[in-house]
Design a protein that fits this description.
215 residues; alpha/beta; Rossmann fold; seven-stranded mixed beta sheet; 9 helices; 43% helix; disordered N terminus
Amino acid sequence: MACCCDFTDTVDRQFTSNKAGQELQRYRRKGAGPTTRLLIEGISGAGIADGSLLDIGAGVGALTFELLERGFDRAVIVEASAGYTAAASSEAVRRGRSQQVEFVSGDFLEVAGTVSTASVVALDRVVCCYPLYEELLIEAIRRAERAFAFSYPRERWYVRAGMKLENALRSRKTGFRTFVHPEAKMRELIRRAGFDLVSQRRTAVWSADVFVRPS
């Protein structure tokens, strides 16, 4: 998600209330999507079963709700799309989790100064929406106490080709763009912040990585 003057308008045009409603219904029927499940497996495999979560670009809140079910006690959701914020909020009410979930609306790069640290910071399929991926990762990592988890598109020719086509199709409709960022540079940036890669689970398109701060 790009940090720019028309960012929120662009996000709301792309991530509409209708799309959020459809995704929420799909989550209720089928559970969390592939990258969310991979991140959960990585976090659980790292031995982290409790604490707090900062879920940046949370969408309908699938990662948040799944980790709360597994023992996390509270979460902060930062979401720039009004439609997705409303969907996640309604799901929190339905699950009886309203007291455990705080919602912060806006582009994370603009509201980061108002967000506290958390045991785990996660960005599920979010970094690909920002051209300024380094700034996004730096601000997110600063708020991670124990672990940092994120999923992103792999650097493969077919991923780049598919994303290029998707960008072309929606350029006139919403103006929203996605990006394939350099994997090695992202991992090195996180390592320099003091985190070790402990889990990397992949599909043909996505990688879901979990980093832990050594005790």
